[in-house]
UniProtKB/TrEMBL annotation:
CDD domains named in the record: LD-carboxypeptidase
Superkingdom assignment: Bacteria
Protein name: D-alanyl-D-alanine carboxypeptidase-like core domain-containing protein
Species: Heyndrickxia oleronia
Gene3D superfamilies linked to this entry: 3.30.1380.10
Sequence segments annotated as region (Disordered): 1-63
Biased composition range(s): Polar residues: 1-17, 40-49
Length: 257
């Protein structure tokens, strides 16, 4: 498997939130949203009237079902160290980084198939989508995390970069999606672009959910990410879409039945 070795990861900025610009450079293998997909508690508190529960944020369990399509990975539930899906393939879609053979071009087979169908249907509707970042290995996340610790210390690093095992990209079931109208970057304005609107409305029909919705920051512990889509299968995605809930709430509700 080529790509995503640490020496391909170029130096990122230290300001955060503009890592996505790196994707325009085809020689870079940066993690376009690594700095966004971290809990930013201060911002969460500002954007919601709920209070973040800081007491539970340090306990991380390792999930027992890493290969399940429904696996829930978040700040409290990590994938096993070194877990790498054994059915990763490259979906036949357009990528923001062209034809480069990189880990981030990969998804698990079932998710890749659904992504292809979603992109094809979007294209039929005049919506041209570009895949920006899919699979990310434990080792890559570990490298990024450790590098950040060296640069800014552990406390700041934990706020800026997801801990190894806690990035949903390691599941191989996630894809960050962009468009020409975004200049192939990832940021919140995607919500207002035709491509972002189309995805928000139709992704569930292909088994994908908008994983970090606006207004649910206290539950997901992530900022709103209109570009980050997670495959969970059509049935669950449709239920989550119609109920306007998160994956966390979906499982919480199931437990209550
Ligand atoms: Zn993402």
């Amino acid at each position: 498997m080529q790509g995503d070795s640490s020496d391909q990861i170029t130096e990122n900025n230290t300001k955060g939130n503009d890592g996505s610009k790196q994707d325009q450079n085809e020689n870079n293998e940066t993690q376009s949203d690594q700095r966004k997909e971290v809990p930013q508690n201060d911002q969460i508190s500002q954007s919601s009237d709920k209070v973040v529960d800081h007491s539970k944020q340090d306990s991380v369990s390792v999930v027992g079902n890493p290969t399940a399509i429904t696996v829930m990975v978040n700040k409290s539930n990590a994938l096993p160290k070194g877990y790498r899906p054994n059915d990763l393939v490259r979906p036949k879609v357009k990528f923001t980084f062209g034809s480069q053979q990189l880990d981030k071009a990969l998804m698990r087979a079932e998710a890749a198939d659904a992504l292809e169908r979603m992109f094809n249907q979007a294209s039929s509707n005049g919506i041209q989508l570009y895949a920006a970042s899919g699979f990310r290995s434990y080792e890559t996340q570990e490298y990024l995390f450790n590098r950040e610790i060296e640069q800014v210390g552990r406390q700041k690093a934990e706020l800026a970069v997801a801990k190894p095992g806690t990035s949903e990209h390691q599941t191989g079931l996630t894809m960050d999606i962009s468009a020409a109208s975004m200049n192939y970057t990832l940021d919140e304005s995607f919500e207002y672009k035709p491509e972002g609107k189309w995805l928000a409305e139709h992704a569930h029909e292909y088994g994908f959910i908008l994983r970090y919705p606006k207004g649910k920051e206290n539950i997901t512990k992530y900022q709103f990410e209109p570009w980050h889509f997670r495959y969970v299968g059509k049935e669950i995605a449709t239920e989550i879409y119609h109920k306007g809930i998160t994956l966390e709430e979906y499982f919480q509700n199931k437990k209550g039945i």
